[in-house]
Every structure is written in structure tokens, then in C-alpha cells.
Design goal:
Helix content: 40-55%
Order of helices and strands: EHEEEEEEHHHHHHHHHH
Number of strands: 7
Structural class: alpha+beta
CATH architecture of the largest domain: Sandwich
Oligomer: single chain
Length: 286
Amino acid sequence: MDFFNRLPVIRYMAGIVYDSFWAEKFHKSGNHEFLHVLSGNIRLVFKEEKREREYFASPGESLIVPAGTLHKDLFDFRKDLKVLYVNFSWEAPEFFRDFNNAQFRLLSPETVTEIRMIAERMRYDKVHAGSGQAMENARLLNILLLFWQDRHNAFASSVPESPALPRRSAAVNAPRVLAENAKKYIERNYAEKLRLADVANHLNVSKYHLSRVFHQTTGFSFQEYLAIFRLKKARSLLLDETCSISECAEKCGFDNGNYFAKVFKKHFGFSPGKFREEELLKTFRE
């Protein structure tokens, strides 16, 4: 995994609405492409020497097109296909040698959620100029690392461990384990008034050490991750008409309704009330 010491370099990134041109004929890029679906559904067709392969993705799911791959992006022209499109270069032939988009369907729910959160943060920062190039490169690397580790951990757990293969040392695993334990604590206590110091005390480490490890491992600061987690929980609660907006805010750890409305709109692009209205209207139409 030496290639994970080399950062990918994002050449272009934007939230785009796909044009039918990309579905009409096969095309390729000189760089790799990461596609995170925001709305609509995509059927990605790879043209190989003897056959064509198809991969599907719905909102919240991702696909990767390795550099030089002939492909079509098929979708229903009656509905917009909106995608966070990331064009990047990366000297990591070992990663792409074993890569298969079908494996995205086999990722654990936790990994899928984590990739989605990072992609949404990248999209938000792109719109609001919230972070620099180096941070975006690091976040993309985090997504690729999450994919790699999830699939290889799944493979490793499905076969007997060979005594000839050395186990990863506890020192190598420690930072990721610490970050995972912090995330589990957030998941159990997000509705409470939660501070970095509280989590650090629970895990018996200093808050400075936890802050550094959490950011290096996830690509998010503790406060960013907590806020995004709370907002996602609030979004689900808003689908329940019996729960007022202020109650949704309180149940998700926001003690101020006005502040909740402000950060919700900043993150998702519309107010909690507008989100509820649009979702109910969508349900009615269906």
C-alpha cells in the first residue's frame, strides 16, 4: 500500500448536470474520474476488448473510471443526472490493477456512509470555497483508502490467515481504531451536548491527540464530523410530519432552532422547512 503515501491530484472538480452527449458514444479521459451521484441514476458502460461491462449507481453512491477507459454514461434523459465529478491524476497502478466498480456494491454500510459524507463535504467546500487544493486531494485519498481497506478487509476475513504473513502491528492500526471508536461514541451520544474533550476522556486520550488523529484519519475535524452526522439524522427526522422542526433540532443535539436552520441551509442548500415541503410533495407525486 505504498501508493497511499502519494496524494492524488485533482485536476477538475464540480457538481455537474450530465449532458446526453456523454451517453451517445464511447469516450475516454486521460485522467481518472470519480463520480458521486447526487440525483438521478447512472448506468456506466465500459467497453473492453471482448465485451462490455455495466455498473449502476443511485444517489449517494459512487463509481470510478480509470484513465483511458472507453465508456458511456447512460441515464434517463427525462430526469437530470447530477454528479459530483472529480477528474484526477494518481500514480497508483497497484490500486487500479485490482479495481472493479462492482465492489462498490459490496462495501459495508459504514464505509458507504463515510464515503458519502466526505463527497458531500467536498461538494459543499467547492461551492463555498471552504478549503484549499491540498485538503481536497487528501479527502479524495481518504475515499480511495476507505474503498481499498473495506474490500481487502472483507477478503482477508473470508480466508484463513496464513501464519507466514506478518500481522499489522498495533501501532499501525491504533490511529484508525481510535478514530472508529470516536465515531461510535458520536453515534451513541450525538443528541447530547458533546465536546471533543468528552470523547477524549471516554477514550482515555488527550483531546489534542484525538483531534489530530481524527482529522488525519477521516479528513474531517471533530466538529465537522459531528455537525454533518447530526444534520443527516435531522434530515431523516424531518420526514416525520409529527415532529416539529424545533423538536428535530433538539433530538439531534442542536439547542438553538435558529442556528439549526442556518447550518442546515448552509450544508444542504435549503431550509429545513423547504426540505420537508419538497420531500412531502415528492412523496405525494409518487
